[in-house]
Fold this protein.
Amino acid sequence: MLILEKIKLDIKMFGVISVNCGDKTLVDESTRLNKIWLLFAYMVFYRDRTVTQSELIKLLWGEGFDDDIHRDSLKTMFYRLRKLLDSFGNDIGSRIIVRLNNTAKLCDCVECTVDCEQFEKFYNSSKTVSDPAERLRLYKAASDAYGTDGEFLQKYGNEFWVIFLSSYYHNMYVQLIKSETELLKKDENYKEIIDLCLKAIKAEPYDESIYCEYMNALIETDKAKEATKVYENISKLLFKEFGIIPSDKLRQLYSRASSAGKTGKLSINEIINQMQTHSLNSGARFCEFDFFKTLYQLQRRSGECMNICLLNISLKPGFEPNRRTLTSLLNNLDKLLQSSLREIDVFSRCGTLRYLIMLNDSNYEHSKMAVERIINKYKSQFPASPIELHYSISK
């Protein structure tokens, strides 16, 4: 009986695909080889079963393609994959894949260590362990397996089978971070929580729950100022990427960080002096939408005269800006509003293409004149701008 020599592969699927064999590593760096790497990843992930020819044609070329037309193309893909893996030496590429009767499978002689499988194994093991120290060890092992390089098969995030698995691993990772931080909080080990969250943010830069744990740990270690900066950064990121404002929990932590330790040992005169000397840019004040709502409620209670203007932005027909262009256009509008409105006025964004302006001590007619003056000023300063401004004012 022929015993095949084992081929050991260490495969990374989080972020960019890479495969290590012995002292050599191959990395998915060229867009010309996208289909080759996608084929390899699929064969590795489903290596416990045979994969049909129709399944692979659908994977590489999509629905609606005739198997007969792409049969030769698929043979070419397998040939190119074997050639790629042959660079490991010992004719590995030719030995690694077995094809029979319109099916394909990784050879039984291949032993794969795959990061996503290691991650899932450690995470599931942690749920069966009662000892806190052992559970923490498994959490850390799972976190190390997930790494900081990005989501599952990040380059192929639009593939249907990848979308499901990417979401699956993402949710598992977020739950892992929550479980690990809860365990660390019991021992008030906030320094490790900070290190854990910093690592987690590299892998999951948009997950608010991780930022909540990070900000809380910073506050608990007397780093409230750093916590406010974290909030400001995630607030800008969420608005830029998704046009949304932070969650209630994040805003509550921001409020807690803003008030923590600022005035605890200062006299009343020192506190007043600190507020008076705090520099503000001239002109109107921009604030977060949550703070704008608070100001609005205070103004209503005071009974002072004010008007609220909703400034809507529309894109001219045929204009579809990328994020960088749109951010630049909105930054120009921010500066114009700040310089054109009075120091007693306040404005805020309440959506990607919407602003709210609080015009204090101003009646309806004066408010209308002020907003129309801003719109005309924008047209004059940016005559080629692809956006148009429209407004409505509460009476």
The chain is about 55% helix and 15% strand. Residues 7-113 form a domain with the Arc Repressor Mutant, subunit A fold (CATH 1.10.10.10). The chain has a mean pLDDT of 87.
